[in-house]
Amino acid sequence: MKKHGLSFGATSLITLALLLVTLLFSACGDQPIAPMATAPPPDTPTPASTINVSAPDLSRGRQVYLDKQCAICHGDLGQGGVAPPIAGLTTPFESFLHIQRTAIPPKPRFNRSELTDQDAYNIYAWLQSVDLQEADVASRVEIELAEGEILGMSVWTTHGCDKCHGAFAQGSANAPALAELSFPFEMERAKMRQTGDEIPEHRAEYIRDDILRRLYKWLQEGAHPLGGC
Question: What is the Cα gyration radius of the chain?
Answer without folding.
Answer: 33
